[in-house]
């Protein structure tokens, strides 16, 4: 069961999830795409400095001797680029002695950072793959969750 967004009664914290989904990342080499299965997080009316934290469970499936990575980041208000400092990377290892075999690799990555927001700003999770071979996914289930959290810290 997914719970899209939870907000504290005072509007001083907000978070997604828990969510359950499997989202294929089709964006390649710097072409971010929104992870639409993660609901947008709208900063409540309390403007100021917010502590933002997110985690993204990514799964990479790459053919032997190929490396592949998934980059994630948060965007604000549909901006053309990510919030600086929000980028995170998951890369597939090529283990010695296994170069001829396909690789399937999962891990949860993310960032925690401080950022100033006005009330009503909207945060969204985006991702892209580095490498043309293989498949990258952002997933969330009972084995590992993807989500965004925000906690108000102070006024500007």
The computed structural class is mainly beta
Mean pLDDT: 89
Strand content: over 45%
Number of strands: 12
Series of H and E elements:
EEEEEEEEEEEE
Number of helices: 0
Description:
The structure is a single chain. This protein is mostly beta strands and 156 residues long. It is built from no helices and twelve strands. It has strands spanning 5-7, 13-16, 21-25, 33-34, 41-42, 48-62, 69-76, 88-91, 103-117, 122-130, 135-140, 147-154. The strands form two sheets. Strands 1, 2, 3, 6, 9, 11 and 12 form a seven-stranded antiparallel β-sheet that branches. Strands 4, 5, 7, 8 and 10 form a five-stranded antiparallel β-sheet that branches. The model has no long low-confidence stretch (mean pLDDT 89).
């Amino acid at each position: 069961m997914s719970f899209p967004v939870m907000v504290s009664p005072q509007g001083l914290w907000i978070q997604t999830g828990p969510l359950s989904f499997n989202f294929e990342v089709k964006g390649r080499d710097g072409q971010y795409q929104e992870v639409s299965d993660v609901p947008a997080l709208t900063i409540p009316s309390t403007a100021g400095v917010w502590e933002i934290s997110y985690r993204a469970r990514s799964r990479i499936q790459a053919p032997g001797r190929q490396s592949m990575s998934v980059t994630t980041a948060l965007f604000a208000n549909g901006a053309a680029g990510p919030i600086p400092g929000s980028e995170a990377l998951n890369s597939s290892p090529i283990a010695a002695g296994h170069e001829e075999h396909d690789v399937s690799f999962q891990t949860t990555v993310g960032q925690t950072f401080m950022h100033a927001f006005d009330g009503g700003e909207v945060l969204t999770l985006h991702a892209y793959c580095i490498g043309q071979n293989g498949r990258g996914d952002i997933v969330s289930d009972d084995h590992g969750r993807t989500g965004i959290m925000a906690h108000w810290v102070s006024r500007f």
